[in-house]
Specification:
Blueprint lengths: L4 E4 L4 H11 L2 E2 L2 E5 L5 E5 L7 E5 L6 H16 L4 E6 L18 H12 L2 E5 L17 E4 L2 H11 L3 E5 L5 H11 L3 E3 L1 E6 L2 E5 L10 E9 L3 H12 L6 E7 L5 H7 L4 E5 L7 E3 L2 H15 L2
Parallel strand pairs: 1-2, 1-5, 5-6, 6-7, 7-8, 9-10, 9-13, 13-14, 14-15, 15-16
Antiparallel strand pairs: 3-4, 11-12
Helix pairs in contact: 1-8, 4-5
The chain binds ribose-5-phosphate (R5P).
The site of ribose-5-phosphate has 15 residues, from β13 and α6.
Length: about 300
């Protein structure tokens, strides 16, 4: 995409390069680092006057990323960038979408406000929309959502014999049903009760499962992996083969990856929205297509 520049954050060069290659765009030159006291330093070297800049930044573990991101977006505007768009394969904070207890801050809305102040548009992959119907409820800028479903269904169809797509909770039904339809496979949805950050219990309420099928446990986010591990445990009790655990966003907090491996799944597979050794399904091309569409249609 001629004229477009792609910027990235430290530690996310692969994402920045993948996005620049997919867009056929130049990489923005500059520097982002921290001073010894922890404050951020941001410098833009490329001439971005009159050019569109795509900032590629996946927002897993977002707190240390947020200030450099805001400084960068502001700096790009000061240097005369025409439009500054955020391509965030994983968009953080969406699960805090309600005041569950009095006095809690609904951080999803505050976070959206901060990003809407400094970016002209946003592209992301399967944001965790549960109580919000769309990003437009909290983001004040045009957005485009890429769905991982088509790429996941293609992977399942190519790699799994007799798949049964299984969602660990009712929230997952939206993507589980879509992937099952695309892959021509049946699906089931389990029931989850969450008692704390790391405490979940899961039950499989439907009748007997075909023992010859290969369960593909599918969720949007794997964070502590307690959801996946508890679901895998339930399936084992149902007498089916070891499941394939498939997540869109591989957050894997703390010991989550080891914990999930200990539940002995047949495989752990994720999309490349958050860099992890389990990434096997690439969405960079689809994100680049959505960025192009946003730049050419939805932004002034
Ligand atoms: C929940 O609403 C999400 O769809 C995931 O099920 C959840 O974020 C998974 O979290 P964890 O891996 O910590 O169990």
């Amino acid at each position: 995409m001629s004229g477009v520049l792609v910027a990235g954050l430290p530690g996310q060069q692969r994402l920045r390069d993948g996005m620049a290659d997919a867009l056929g765009a130049d990489r923005l030159q500059g520097e982002i680092r921290h001073f010894p006291d922890g404050e951020s330093y941001v410098r833009v070297d490329s001439n971005c006057r009159g050019r569109d800049v795509v900032v590629s930044a996946t927002l897993a573990r977002p707190d240390p990323l947020l200030l450099p991101l805001i400084y960068l977006a502001r700096g790009l505007r000061e240097q005369g960038a025409r439009r500054v768009v955020l391509a965030a394969p994983y968009l953080a904070y969406l699960r805090q979408d309600k005041r569950f207890k009095p006095g809690e801050v609904v951080t999803s809305a505050v976070f959206a406000g901060l990003l809407s102040d400094v970016f002209d548009g946003l592209v992301t992959v399967d944001p965790h929309l549960h109580r919000y119907r769309s990003l437009a409820e909290i983001y004040r800028v045009p957005t485009r959502v890429v769905h991982a479903g088509p790429a996941i269904a293609e992977w399942v169809a190519a790699h799994v014999e007799r798949p049964l797509i299984v969602g660990p909770d009712s929230e997952s039904e939206q993507w589980v049903s879509d992937v099952a339809r695309r892959a021509g496979a049946p699906y089931a949805v389990m029931e989850k009760t969450r008692r704390g950050d790391r405490e979940v219990s899961i039950s499989l309420s439907r009748g007997p499962v075909d023992p010859a099928c290969t369960p593909v446990l599918l969720d949007d986010i794997i964070s502590t992996a307690r959801t996946m591990a508890a679901a895998a445990e339930q399936l084992r009790g149902a007498g089916v083969r070891a499941p394939i655990c498939l997540g869109v966003h591989a957050l894997f907090a703390e010991d989550a990856y080891e914990a999930l491996r200990r539940s002995s799944p047949a495989a752990i597979v994720t999309c490349d929205t958050v860099a992890h050794e389990t990434n096997a399904i690439s969405l960079i091309g689809a994100i680049a297509v959505a960025v192009r569409q946003l730049l050419s249609s939805a932004l002034p």
